[in-house]
């Protein structure tokens, strides 16, 4: 593989994962918790970034060294475990994708005034078109990169417009007034939970980036992916903090739109439309691609016609939104549930790292294993506490 094409592929995988994470739920969760926790939300972001890096480093590395997708690895750890993991991933991916389609509809509604349902249908057509062109993989990579750059650039503009108290944010990131488990679980779930952390790993595998000789590239790509998503999260947090610090109450039906409109007026509102649409459609693409990648190896028919299964996944998501819809509280809930999938998925991958029939003579770094185990324990504990105490508050 040529160095330039290799770099483009690795960047494409990083952006696919990052833009899969940056969806309507990402925008909603970030602004929702910024309004609740103010500057202390910086601490939540810091902890989530550390957890995200640890989880992604382990998972992408083990996929590359085993040269198999996660569901096959899981089945090799324990027969049937791969089917269970795939069920969790696909179900979570479908639920998230309904929210993604809803977000795309909302974005087009802001930009052009068309109904969210019509906007969702048109956006679904765009997402389907990405997979119907001849070199779908390259188009998907480029689409994710361009959309990612646009989202980050526009969010930076709005952040400066809102004039956030950066000094306070820095202090509270290290010494927060409060620590919110629900916020941490939701943010981690929305960044590397469910299907998201596997998006780039499976993309690299699909493109032939695997084996020991590729581990350096895989590590760079996995950390870059978290970096891209985290940059967007930080800028969005600061933009929202600037608005909240002025005493402005956000619209509970659409918190991120409130931030952009309060910070930059009607221009800000239109910028929100662009960001929401780009975030939503790239997430639709990432969710559909990754969810289907979890069932491709189970059937020769699915493997042969996987593009059409991806198209079907998008069509179903669109049809469900048009008939049902997706409120803000459910987007936050699905993020937290995806956070619960993470300790299961990461735990399975860590077990696989020590089975020679899966990884051969490869020796997984001890510090990565310790890092990974701590994340499994911490996310499992916080996830259970969240389910018992935190989630009901969303609907009270």
TrEMBL record:
Q: Which UniProt keywords apply?
A: Membrane, Transmembrane, Transmembrane helix
| TM region positions | 37-55, 76-98, 110-131, 143-161, 181-201, 222-248, 268-295, 307-324, 330-354, 366-388
Its primary localisation, in coarse terms, equals: membrane
Q: Which residues form a coiled coil?
A: none
Organism domain of life: Bacteria
Tell me where it resides.
Membrane
**InterPro entries, alphabetized:** NRAMP_fam (IPR001046)
Transmembrane as a keyword of this entry, yes or no, is: yes
Q: How does it sit in the membrane?
A: Multi-pass membrane protein
* Cited PANTHER family: SOLUTE CARRIER PROTEIN FAMILY 11 MEMBER, TRANSPORTER PROTEIN
Name of this chain's protein: NRAMP family divalent metal transporter
Q: Which organism is it from?
A: Thalassobacillus hwangdonensis
Q: What is the lineage of its organism?
A: Bacteria, Bacillati, Bacillota, Bacilli, Bacillales
């Amino acid at each position: 593989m040529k160095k330039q094409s290799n770099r483009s592929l690795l960047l494409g995988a990083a952006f696919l994962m990052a833009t899969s994470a940056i969806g309507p739920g990402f925008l909603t969760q970030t602004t929702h918790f910024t309004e609740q926790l103010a500057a202390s939300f910086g601490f939540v972001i810091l902890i989530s970034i550390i957890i995200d890096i640890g989880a992604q480093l382990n998972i992408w590395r083990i996929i590359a060294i085993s040269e198999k997708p996660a569901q096959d690895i899981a089945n090799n750890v324990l027969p049937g475990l791969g089917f269970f993991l795939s069920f969790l991933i696909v179900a979570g991916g479908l639920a998230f994708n309904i929210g993604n389609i809803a977000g795309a509809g909302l974005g087009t509604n802001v930009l052009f005034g068309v109904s969210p349902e019509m906007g969702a249908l048109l956006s679904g057509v765009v997402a389907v078109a990405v997979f119907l062109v001849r070199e779908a993989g390259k188009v998907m990579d480029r689409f994710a990169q361009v959309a990612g750059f646009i989202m980050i650039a526009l969010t930076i503009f709005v952040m400066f417009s809102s004039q956030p108290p950066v000094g306070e944010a820095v202090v509270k990131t290290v010494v927060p007034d409060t620590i919110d488990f629900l916020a941490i679980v939701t943010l981690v779930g929305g960044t590397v939970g469910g299907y998201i952390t596997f998006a780039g790993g499976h993309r690299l595998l699909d493109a032939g980036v695997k084996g020991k000789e590729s581990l350096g590239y895989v590590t760079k790509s996995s950390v870059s992916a978290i970096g891209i998503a985290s940059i967007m999260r930080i800028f969005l947090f600061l933009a929202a903090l600037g608005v909240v610090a002025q005493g402005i109450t956000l619209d509970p039906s659409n918190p991120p739109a409130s931030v952009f409109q309060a910070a930059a007026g009607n221009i800000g509102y239109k910028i929100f439309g662009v960001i929401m649409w780009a975030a939503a459609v790239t997430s639709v693409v990432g969710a559909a691609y990754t969810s289907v990648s979890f069932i491709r190896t189970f059937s020769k028919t699915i493997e042969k016609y996987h593009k059409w299964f991806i198209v079907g996944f998008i069509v179903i998501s669109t049809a469900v939104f048009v008939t049902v819809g997706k409120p803000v509280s459910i987007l936050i809930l699905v993020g937290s549930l995806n956070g619960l999938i993470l300790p299961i998925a990461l735990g399975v991958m860590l077990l696989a790292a020590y089975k020679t029939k899966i990884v051969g003579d490869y020796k997984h770094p001890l510090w990565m294993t310790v890092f990974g185990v701590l994340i499994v324990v911490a996310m499992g504990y916080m996830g259970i506490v969240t389910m018992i105490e935190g989630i009901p508050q969303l609907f009270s």
